[in-house]
Amino acid sequence: MTFKYQIRVRLVIINDDKLLLEYVTDEDFYFYPGGRVENYETIKSAAEREMQEELGVQFTFKKILYIREFIEPDQEEHSLEMFVLGELDNYDISKNKDDPDYKENHEFSWVDINKLPDKLYPVTLTKKLAADFHQDFPNQGEYLGAAK
């Protein structure tokens, strides 16, 4: 097994007090949409590309909210994740079946920010994100460490 170090973007998109999440149907958990930053790509352009690929919508970058490390020694993986706040040009979303990373078992849904699911990863971010939302996200670039 080869050690993998990656940079990822995780997108925080909120519309009418609802947070856009990706749900894995066969494993019963949610996560923030996004993906890997490609070689020579900026965080901003990666976020824009991911939303174009996954949902066919334009993403407007606002700011980096959180920085987290995702470390899985058993899988020899270490990722640096940037949680990016942004907006979409169209909130009527549907999965893009032409997405190069399309997965049948992944669904996108809008979830009430005041009733976020227990299985939203990283779990330790859920309460913080909701509290920060109600304060209009006062900080940026906050380091969360290896949040679970």
Please, could you describe this protein's structure?
The protein has helices spanning 43-55, 126-134; strands spanning 4-15, 18-24, 29-31, 34-36, 59-72, 77-88, 106-112, 120-121, 142-145. Strands 1, 2, 3, 4, 5, 6, 7, 8 and 9 form a nine-stranded mixed beta sheet that branches. The chain has two helices and nine strands; from the N terminus they run ββββαββββαβ. The protein has a single domain, classed as Nucleoside Triphosphate Pyrophosphohydrolase. The longest helix is centred in the first third of the chain and has 13 residues, at 43-55. The protein is mostly beta strands and 148 residues long. β1 and β2 form a beta hairpin. Helix content is 15%, strand content 43%. The protein is globular and about 45 Å long. The mean pLDDT is 92.
Topology overview:
Layout: E1 4-15, E2 18-24, E3 29-31, E4 34-36, H1 43-55, E5 59-72, E6 77-88, E7 106-112, E8 120-121, H2 126-134, E9 142-145
Parallel strand pairs: 1-6, 3-8, 5-9
Antiparallel strand pairs: 1-2, 1-4, 2-3, 2-7, 5-6
Number of strands: 9
Q: Between the first and last Cα atoms, what is the distance in angstroms?
A: 23 Å
Count of separate structural domains: 1
The poorly predicted ranges are none
